[in-house]
Amino acid sequence: MILVALFSLMLLGSAHSAILSLTVGTDKQVYNVGDMVTFTGNVNNGSAVPNALVLFEVDTPEGKPWIIRTLTTGQTPTGPFGVQLLNVTPTDTLGNPDYTFSPNTLAGFMVFMQNNYGSSYPVLVAINVFFSNGLPFAEQIVFNQTLQAGETASTLATVIIPGNAVLGQAIVCASIFNAYPKNIGFAYSPEQSATFNITSNTPMQAPYSRPPLGSFNSSVPLTSTASLPIWLGNYTAFATTRYGIYSNSTQTSFTVKLAGDLTGPKGVPDGKVDIRDVNLVAKAYGSSKGPPASSNWNPICDLTGPKGVPDGKVDIRDVNFVAREYGIAAVPAP
Q1: Cis status of the peptide bond prior to 65, with omega within 30 of 0
Q2: Alpha helix (H) ranges present in the chain?
Q3: CATH number of the domain located at residue range(s) 3-257 in this protein
Q4: Exposed, middle or buried by CB within 10 Å (0-12, 13-18, 19+), for 101?
């Protein structure tokens, strides 16, 4: 679903107006845990804007940020920027540069920023850390202060590398902005990123590919990690952009479910696929909705069919569906 927000600003009282349009959407409306969600959007002011900054935020069903990025529409603007993110560097916990970490250890990230304006501005800096397969495992607001005129500042954040980390070259992305996108905040400058290694040298898969001019995109696996679990329920994605004197914002939503989670200790889905779910679909095996309906027919066990959709019977396809998801866990909807 793509939602488009448009608005016009009158300039110096003339009858002329300029329109900056912004879209954002997902490739599906409903996803299963483990799927890849792809976000796409466009910035247009009568023609495709090739070098806009889009501040992008995805909130979990509990309303907390899961992803905060500054995306570009094909080309990275070169500035000058009034408030600027200078760089982000992987470090040890004391701030010394370090580019190799092991699971179950702390990684540090030193972020440098600068206010080139002649007055003070509110500044937030967020980092997102991704494994080599694009899976996010950490999101933090690492700076939330007023940056004084001409001030250069730095901050050191630490992140635990999970024990089940995907080995290889990981990436940290840092964004600088004045407020959250959901509060109509905007990016001050392009994001900065750096790579580091988790015990091996597997080639990195970037969290998003470079889009056509005027467009932006980002793809993220819907897979839980110990530090950044996947929630079941409705997610909201926010996007804001500012180009010249014009700005715009928009949002979209999508739903994440765990289809194989049929029941739990209290007889209702509990956010994980375990032996209870396997037993439930096994009891309904061989049944159909009829007419007449089989005595062991249970419609919630009809998960799939020859065309990938429920087909009115519980057969080996449904049993295999639950078996493939056995052991997968997510956080139940709030």
Answers
A1: no
A2: 275-283, 316-324
A3: 2.60.40.3880
A4: buried
**CB burial of residue 291 (10 Å; 0-12, 13-18, 19+):** exposed
Cα 72 to Cα 33, 295, 333: the distances in Å are 28, 57, 32
**What is the sign, positive or negative, of the torsion defined by CA atoms of 181, 229, 139, 76?**
negative
Distance CA 206, CA 69 (A): 13
Give pLDDT tens digits for 187-208.
999 999 999 999 864 444 444 4
Tokens of 224: 């839980």
In angstroms, the CA 119 to CA 140 distance is: 27
Q: Are 102 and 207 in contact (CB under 8 A)?
A: no
Query: How many Å apart are CA 43 and CA 50, to the nearest integer?
Result: 8
Long-range pairs of 303-308 with CB within 8 A, sequence gap ≥ 24: 303/259, 303/260
State which CATH number among 3.40.190.80, 3.90.1150.10, 1.10.1330.10, 1.10.1040.10 fits the domain covering 261-334.
1.10.1330.10
Q: Where are the domains of the chain?
A: 3-257, 261-334
Write out pLDDT tens, residues 56-93. Answer: 999 999 999 999 999 999 999 999 999 999 999 999 99
Task: Name which of 126, 238, 141, 125 is nearest 181 in CA terms.
Answer: 238
User: What is residue 209's predicted lDDT score, i.e. its pLDDT?
Assistant: 53
Angle at the Cα of 113 from the Cα atoms of 109 and 118, rounded to 5 degrees: 165
Cα separation, 108 vs 276, whole angstroms? 41
Average pLDDT value for residue range 250-278: 96
One fold for 3-257 and 261-334 = no
pTM here is 0.87
Asked whether residue 139 carries a pLDDT value surpassing 90, the answer given is yes
